[in-house]
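FAQ: What does the model actually see?

It sees only this:
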Amino acid sequence: MWTKRNLLRAILAAAMLLAVANVARPATPEQIEDAIDAGVAWLVANQNGDGSWGTSELVAQTGLAVVKLQDRARELQTTEYDEEIQAGLDYIFSQAMINPYGLGSDVICFPFLGSHETYNTGIVMMAVANDGDLSQVVATGPANGWTYEQVMEGCVQFFVLTQNSDGGWSYSYTPGGSSDQSNSGYAVLGISYARSAGIDTSAVDAGLTSWVAAIQAGDGGSRYMIGWDWQNILKTGNLTFQMSYLGMGPGDAAFDAAIGYIELHWRDFIDPGWGYGGPWYDYQAMYCAMKGLQASGVDEIDTDGDPDLEDWFNQEPPASPPQDFASVIVATQNGDGSWTDNDWGFETLGTAWALLTLEKVTVIHEIEVEVDVKPGSYPSSVNLKSKGLTPVAIHTTEDFDAAEIDPSTVVLDPDVCVIMPVKAELDDCDEVWDPVLMEMVGDGDIDLVVFFVTADLDCLGDVTEVAIGGLTYGGIPIVGTSDISFVKQGPKPK
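And it is asked to produce this:
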């Protein structure tokens, strides 16, 4: 039967087919930038008077729109969107629920019209953490007077207390209930943003590990629920992101199986695919696939079944029809700058998902740190014949406090030979020039200095760059590199 919905889809299909037919080359950086500009302008122009976006599920739509504007403002180093961002956050805070289900006065969540608190709260956590300064104070709604950090901690507590026995989450708190991967995907997104902001989220890790193992089907894809074999790329993107959160990645059998599933179904239509070939597209599936691939550092996969790997984001030369996200997203943008989400029907959702995908916005589950072998000396030359210890400094910067690193987890060049430090101390060892004293002085920041037995460095061979890895006390990986050179001179004869 031809219904109004069917007619709308037929019209949309014709428009999409025409748009994709015009894609003869990969999206250029200029085209991507123009598409982002137009999409962001659409978001700004379509914010509601109360600071929200959309006409339904306003908390989720507002949270995603805010995240997009925050990342765009950060990228351009502009304050142009500050009013829209703050208005969006104020609307979100107005919807807060404190002590949900009697879980505690320090627990907070963000339902919409009293339900769907799991994915709404996950998305809100993205927006609050993404705003940067967790010392800010909420000025409206039930959480008035809370700091952003307290909000994030309260949301984490909500997810700790509502995590089901299977390790995942449902739409709402259902003690003894079953979880689903759609809600669990957004829960882990919010938890990941919290951990990246320095909030301890480790209480969910054991359960999530069980969930990841149980939700993966034999074909590598992610089920919807344990025992419900409805796999697709959207849910498997959630799975690879969850694996990344847990420290899994390329080389882990389960992770590689998930990538294999994504590769196998890359050119399938919507469900299990993301819409390859049209006539309409699932921008949420693209976003979920992107976040898992990007967070795991996977830049290329097999998108066409041949022995070669291709760039899943923007391919050169292009395929026909295009099989990379950027070309499709640029080609299917509406004339007003928006994207129409064909699954949910909300332009704000389609636009936010398309823009977040187009700029690869996600949480990268590691922190890059500044490393200096033998701080204060240049070049960083190590005499392997000398006795004693070699210091390696991990510097505190404007964005990172080296005191957050757990020294017991630090290793030197884990890809070559694992070398553990024998001691560690906090010290100000990064020097700056003092024009008054006319000499180098400490910069005032406390750095972490780890010491390695010099003779142990011999296993590094003739490398000119050494890597360091470790974990923060909150479980976030840290990585960094430093130049290094070796000499093998013994003591001079007397």
